[in-house]
Amino acid sequence: MKQFLSFVKKEFFHIFRDTRTMMIILGIPIIQMLLFGFAITTEVRNVQVAVFDPSKDISTERIINQLDASNYFHIVQMLNNPDEISTIFKKDHNINLVVVFDEKFNENLLHTGEASIQLIADATDPNQATTLSGYATSIINSYQQELLQEYKIPIQIKPEVKMLYNPQIKSAYNFVPGVMGLIFMLICAMMTSISIVREKETGTMEILLASPMKPFYIIVAKAIPYFAISIVNLTTILLLSVYVLKVPVTGSFYSLIGISLLFIMVALSLGIFISTVAQTQVAAMLVSGMGMILPVMILSGMIFPIESMPVILQWVSDIIPAKWYISAVRKLMIQGLGITAVYRELVVLLGMLVFLVFVSLKNFKTRLN
Amino acid sequence: MKEPVIYTENLTKKFGAFTAVDNISFSVDKGEIFGFLGANGAGKTTAMRMLCGLSHPTSGKGSVAGYDILKESEKVKKNIGYMSQKFSLYEDLKVWENIRLFGGIYGMESKRIASKTDEILDELGFLAERNTLVRELPLGWKQKLAFSVSIFHEPKVVFLDEPTGGVDPVTRRQFWELIYAATDRGITAFVTTHYMDEAEYCNRVSIMVDGKIEALDTPKNLKLQFEADSMDEVFQQLARKATRKGD
Amino acid sequence: MVAISVQNINKKYGNIQALNNISFDVQQGEIYGIIGPDGAGKTSLFRILTTLLLAESGTATVDGLDIIKDYKQIRNRIGYMPGKFSLYQDLTVEENLEFFATVFNTTIKENYDLIKDIYSQIEPFKDRRAGKLSGGMKQKLALSCALIHKPTVLFLDEPTTGVDPVSRKEFWEMLQNLKAQNITILVSTPYMDEAMLCDRIALIQEGTFLQVDTPDNIIELFTQILWAVKSKEMFRLLNDLRGYDRIKTCFTFGEVHHITVKEDLKMEDIRTYLIGKGHQDIDVYAIKPSIEDCYMQLAQKTKV
Questions:
Q1: What is the pLDDT of residue A369?
Q2: Predicted confidence (pLDDT) at residue A345 exceeds the cutoff of 60
Q3: Which of C50, C58, C54 is nearest to C20 (CA)?
Q4: Which class for B14: exposed (0-12), middle (13-18), buried (19 or more C-beta within 10 A)?
Q5: What's the rounded mean pLDDT across residues A326-336?
Q6: Chain C residue with minimal CA distance to B41?
Q7: Looking at the DSSP assignment, which residues form a beta bridge with residue C291?
Q8: Residue C205 phi, psi dihedral angles, 5° rounding
Q9: pLDDT digit string (tens) for A140-197?
């Protein structure tokens, strides 16, 4: 036991003495949260909108008012001629959305129960276009709800948007779980694998192997400091999320912590597994960086919704631990669900943990190969 | 009078309060093999870096191959060759690719490179290895090839930093024969080594202790001066006096 | 008592035979040198004996324990200093030593006697990071760490490579002190002059032992007539000597050339020959061979 403790102590020395790296691993969560939260936000505000309203009736007016009243849109121009619709984007670069109503909009709505609105977004920035057409649609939908209550007849406004629907209203909701998955992957998998492989590279592993130190101890001792750092990072992320980005933890707090700790362990064992394969620090970094973190960003649903990916990629995404973790965090943190809602994720992550620990232990050599 | 190929006067390099190289003055003639000895941390590497134009002296002056190391370091670099045990050739390139690369770096014409490549491969007996990856060559061969590459552009001076470490005795001698042949053609060799028997190959030897040159003469005179049987004894007598311990 | 016993060890990497049927015994309390250039297989041999590598075939025991079956016990008893400086550069001198003491379930205090002579030299710098030490000091620290658990057998893989002659000499003095405390030492080196400091040596080339004996016996067994020759122009002398058909081999050796000659050749013949070639200040005299002469002779013999 004394052996083990002194090894853990040594690991902490390594980390604390490399001030630059320590600043990076503690600073990354803060930077990422703020970066995603403020700089690369997909949230829209005061988008300039043009409207073509040949109908000019009570309904169209109410919709236009509601759009204008929202924080997101600012109606700057009323078009008089349908020809202008296609040219307006070229003429005025500030306009990002054109709302086009049917002729006789209100009449159609009341008599046939159906009317349509065309939302034409400037898709040069597809992300923004998607988001803002989504917002417009949801505003129209809420108007539809109002009408339903007023008239008690089935009516339907059909917004014609050909772009993807972004279900989240606030973009921060979307990326907080993603950043959490990314950070733990980065710190646990990458840093642990690098720190083990470094001992191989500098030759100290040779001495350790030729000593009575148990290989299992070496591995666990390597993981402990990064586990501790990850807990610090988890705290930072949650604090930033709740107090700075105003994304509250709506579901079970303890379940969220529990599944985070589980995921941290999965990531640590993944790092250990990488270290049994990689021989150099560069290789460890490439495997964990390119091989793990990139897929996490792309396939975990952090940036692109998984549902809209090709089926094969959806299958591939299933083997990525972060996908399950991110999905669980969404449910627990944002959708406000309890632990029962994430049983599936829990079981999958547990399975992955057992598998990775087993494979790493089997793979870890008591000799040099 | 013959102009010295390497010339320094009160050359000094300080890092903060630490004087790595302390007022060294010496000169090396054309075609000479000059041994530059010293314990680890005596200041050899720092001095050599200044001579190669890689590091700026704190004070003093010097010239290499006729160019001022302070003002004309780019010209100095063009007229010297450099080889060390640590870095010499690209392991993942073939033998001829390495030669062409270094020829190209020194601005030689492709035609000249091609014809000279054949020459040196023939001289080394490596003609069959032209397309071999350098990493597949035995260590001794690599070192010999690295030396040939370092003088490929016919520099006036070649700096050799512990060139023979770990090489077997036979190859080590072949290596020194290459140095002999090069100096015979008028190239000056400036060599550091930890093998004291190799110091005896040199025309003249300097021994650095704590940043200063404590002795400089032919091996024969040094042995007489210190009443020693071998250069190793001379070195031991001088270097034991060192007070400096850091690298 | 036999401390290390090796029988017919073979090791291959792909097509390269790193070790070719190596057998030897090291007696307890002996300094045994494995002498040969880089790439001769020294490190592979050390790794096999320190239970870090498996040999393709052959058996070996360290301290009477089998290197495969009893590897765990062996790891408790041996001290190992790999070729590269293998300590934690970001830990201080004292932290390194303390760490290795606990790894081996001991304390610095318990075995301070053994390392006192060595460690006391670097103790003034005990709060300095290991990465900031000079070559000679690093080597002393590494040796202290390898000795901290009072090993019965010490494996030192090229401990003096890249170290200056003064530190090298000090290092060998330390080894003599350890030998006096009955520690068996297996040491490898590419420096032929260090061979004379070992009790027995094995000369290794391309994975094969050329000869195993005491340094004196190896020199005794040198069968050739060996002379040293010098003149004013050493490089021309070399070529001229090589051009003389009654000289078998000619190698540069510092300020002289060493030649082995056919039995009927007289020194006078060489003198006359060289004067004819226009050499001045000619000197020819018989010399006692060094280990390096022996190595070269043996190496050439096996190559042909």
A1: 64
A2: yes
A3: C58
A4: middle
A5: 83
A6: C134
A7: none
A8: -145, 130
A9: 888 877 877 777 666 667 666 544 333 343 455 667 788 888 888 888 888 899 999 9
DSSP string, C262-303: -TT--HHHHHHHHHHTT--S-EEEE-PPPHHHHHHHHHHHHH
All residues of chain C having their beta carbon less than 8 Å from the beta carbon of residue A212 are: 72, 75-76, 103-105
Strand residues in A139-233 grouped as ranges (E): 156-160
Tell me the shortest Cα–Cα distance from B236 to chain C, in angstroms: 6
pLDDT of the residue at C64: 93
Say which amino acid occupies A261.
Answer: L
Q: Which residues contact B109 (CB under 8 A, 6 or more apart)?
A: none
Distance from CA of C264 to the nearest CA of B (A): 26
Q: Give B197's contacts in chain C (Cβ within 8 Å).
A: 193, 253-254, 292
Phi and psi based region of residue A85 (left: phi greater than 0; alpha: psi -120 to 50; beta: remaining): alpha
Beta partners for A287? none
Residue of C nearest to A18 (CA): C90
Taking CA A19 as the corner, what is the angle to CA A17 and CA A24, rounded to the nearest 5 degrees?
Answer: 135
For residue C52, the 8-state DSSP code is: S
Q: How many beta-carbon contacts under 8 Å exist across A and C? A: 73
Nearest by CB to B169, which of C136, C166, C192?
C192
C106 min Cα distance to partner chain B (Å): 30
Q: Under 8 Å CB-to-CB from C159, ≥6 apart: which residues?
A: C81, C139, C142, C143, C171, C187, C189
Contact C116/A at CB under 8 A: no
Euclidean distance between CA atoms B129 and B136, whole angstroms: 10
Over residues B192-242, the pLDDT tens digits come to 988 888 899 999 999 999 999 999 999 999 999 999 988 999 999 998 877
User: In angstroms, how far is CA B90 from the centroid of its own chain?
Assistant: 19
* Tokens, residue C119: 């460690």
Note if the pTM is more than 0.90. no
Beta carbons of C38 and B166 less than 8 angstroms apart: yes
Give contacts of C 51-110 with B, CB under 8 A.
Answer: none
Touch between chain A and chain B: 3 or more Cβ pairs under 8 Å: no
Residue with tokens 């390597």: A222
User: What residues form DSSP beta bridges with C204?
Assistant: C209
With 0-12 / 13-18 / 19 or more C-beta atoms within 10 angstroms meaning exposed / middle / buried, residue B233 is middle
Window C:26-85, CB contacts with A under 8 Å: 47, 50-54, 71-72, 75-76, 78, 80, 82-85
Residue C64, amino acid = G
Answer whether A206 sits within 8 Å of C82, measured CB to CB: yes
Distance from CA of C159 to the nearest CA of B (A): 12
Supply C163's token pair.
Answer: 């170290």
Q: How far is B4 from chain C (nearest CA, A)?
A: 21
Q: What is the pLDDT of residues A103-124, one digit of tens each?
A: 888 888 778 778 888 888 776 6
C36 touches B: beta carbon within 8 Å: yes
| Residues B198 and B204: beta-carbon distance below 8 Å | no
**Nearest by CB to B40, which of C38, C167, C253?**
C167
What is the average pLDDT across C24-31? 96
> Could you tell me the two tokens for A271?
């790092």
Asked whether the predicted pLDDT for residue C279 surpasses 60, the reply is yes
Percent of chain A residues topping a pLDDT of 70: 86
* Distance (Å, whole) CA A274 – CA A185: 12
- Tell me which chain B residues have a C-beta less than 8 angstroms from the C-beta of C161: 165-166
Determine, for residues C104 and A10 on separate chains, whether the beta-carbon distance falls below 8 Å. no
Is B17's pLDDT higher than 60? yes
Distance CA A243, CA A245 (A): 6
pLDDT grade for A126, boundaries at 50, 70 and 90: low
* Contact residues, chain C, for A20 at CB < 8 Å: none
- Decide which of C228 and A279 is more confident: C228
